[in-house]
Design goal:
The chain has one domain (about 15-135). The protein has four helices and six strands; from the N terminus they run βααββαβββα. Strands 1-2-3-5 form a four-stranded antiparallel sheet. Strands 4-6 form a two-stranded antiparallel ribbon. It starts with 12 loop residues before the first strand and ends in a 17-residue tail after the last helix. It is α+β, with helices and mostly antiparallel strands.
Length: about 150
Amino acid sequence: MQEVHIINQEGHFGFRDQLQDSLVTKYVSDNILKNQIIKHSKHQFEEGDVEHWWHDETKRGIRTRFSDDLLWLVYSVCEYIEFTGDLSLLDEETPYLIGTPLQDGEDEKYDIHEESEQKSSIYRHCIRAIEKSLNFGENGLPKIGSRRLE
């Protein structure tokens, strides 16, 4: 499996960063982007949010309230399908993560996150991400940044 490994100076993998970086690899090998999408889908929690970054070797990562991370999976899937025409990616099944949800007043938490027994298609992973992101303020505008996603 070809993967892009962009490890920052702290030694962790970033959800948004890795997907952004792998988007340009579609011109070299669309399998690199496909494999990154599959890998990153496994870093989505059952609730639809994702690990902002993680360490593969320890299963530890940071859960945040960042509102854009989770939508990079959807965007990357759309880019992959538009570029390749390969809809079979949507049927790939991968597990979710389980972890303690963030408490009121808690913006992030570094913790161990285990693989869930629950699996679903990349399509369903994207739907969960979109549904989780639908968080609007009193004026009808979407909340962005690290605003509460619950």
